[in-house]
Amino acid sequence: MQITCWGVRGSIPAPDPKNTRYGGNTSCLSIEAEDRIVIIDAGTGIRSLGHELLGTEKEIYIVLTHVHSDHVEGFPFFKPLYEEDRTIHLLDHHYEGTTWSLLERFDGFHFPLEPSQIPATIHRVESDGVAYLNDEGFDLTRRVVNHPGGAYGYRLSLEGRSVVHIPDNEIDPPGNAAAPFEELQSFCSGADVLVHDAQYVLEDMPEKSGWGHSVLRDVCRLAQEAEVGHLAFFHHDPERSDEALDAMQEDARKRLETHGIECTAAYEGLTL
Ligand SMILES: [Zn+2]
Ligand SMILES: [Zn+2]
What we know:
CATH class: Alpha Beta
Bound molecules: zinc ion
């Protein structure tokens, strides 16, 4: 399988001359195998992924970790929506009794079009998305993580390889954790690739405690205890410059190299 990061920024797009190497687009990651592609989140990074998919015959599935704006705002600009001979499997987001669809971005008010004006065929999946993808042959699991308003992490396995994607999660939140460390560790256990939120560094605390994002040091500990093969840290703070991310990567690599774990600060276009 091939994993690609299309948007690695958290919270809000951050186009800035200081950010050009890692990129300013928000959360979007794809996992591709043969003729199918699963897209996790539709932040502004999904726009460039859309360009790559134009004219291809890939079967497209879109799932969400949660519905914060940085994970959904790119959707109307996903060009395959405007291809007439295209079918897109769009999975509703269910969380604690509420349901939300990316089609709600097309309300004719926040965006000029309505769902009936989308040229592609939208196969909207209103039932549980994980069960649907399992039926489609994807070995996918999901769990609740620590994030205000609630969010999921996903784990996908294929032919003995596995990737875990948790774009928004506070490993060590104040108060009761929806996902205690031991549970996160077992969810990530032995993954070949872990793509995980590391929006903060120690200096951001305690001010950002409870905001729903992890400190890099805690993410390194999770990668180490779960014995993953490669950590790609993700959901960079919009204020974090390329140079600051280089320094975070250096720090994480020092922590992880003695454990034989590779580490990369995720950037737009990173493919694993
Ligand atoms: Zn986010
Ligand atoms: Zn969020």
